TrEMBL record:
InterPro entries: MFS (IPR011701), MFS_dom (IPR020846), MFS_Exporter (IPR052714), MFS_trans_sf (IPR036259)
Transmembrane residue ranges: 12-34, 46-64, 76-103
Listed name of the protein: MFS transporter
Segments forming domain Major facilitator superfamily (MFS) profile: 9-123
Keywords tagged on the record: Membrane, Transmembrane, Transmembrane helix
Length: 123
C-alpha cells in the first residue's frame, strides 16, 4: 500500500497555514496608521509597540517545542490557533497604548506557538 501525500488532514493544515499568514500580513500595513490615528503614537513608540509581537514570538519559540512534546500536539495546535484568531478582536478593544502593546505581545506569543506547532503537526 502506497502512502498518500495529499490527505484531508494535510489539506486542512495547508488551509490553516494560509489563513494564519494571510491574517498576519493583512494586519501589518494597517497597524502603523491605526496607532497614529487612534493613539497619536510617534514613530519611536510605534516601533516599540509593533516590535513587541516579534520579540514575544522569538522568546516563546524555544519553549514551544517542549510544550509540544509535553502536551498532545493537535489539541495544542488548535488551542494556539484559537488564541491567535481571538486576539485579533483585542486590538479594537484596547483603550490605551499600553494595553495595545500587551495585546500585541500576547499575539506574538500565540504566533510563536502556532508557527512551531503548525510545522510539527504538518509532519
Amino acid at each position: 500500500m502506497k502512502d498518500r501525500l495529499i490527505t484531508p488532514s494535510y489539506c486542512f493544515i495547508l488551509a490553516a497555514n494560509f489563513l494564519l499568514y494571510f491574517g498576519f500580513w493583512l494586519m501589518m500595513p494597517v497597524l502603523p496608521f491605526y496607532l497614529t490615528e487612534v493613539f497619536g503614537a510617534d514613530k519611536f513608540t510605534m516601533g516599540l509597540v509593533l516590535s513587541c509581537y516579534t520579540i514575544a514570538a522569538l522568546c516563546i519559540r524555544p519553549f514551544s517545542g517542549y510544550l509540544l512534546d509535553t502536551f498532545a500536539r493537535k489539541p495544542f495546535y488548535l488551542l494556539a490557533y484559537f488564541i491567535f484568531t481571538s486576539i485579533f478582536g483585542g486590538y479594537l478593544l484596547a483603550g490605551t497604548l499600553l494595553l495595545f502593546a500587551i495585546i500585541r505581545a500576547g499575539h506574538g506569543v500565540a504566533f510563536g506557538l502556532l508557527t512551531v506547532s503548525n510545522s510539527t503537526v504538518a509532519i
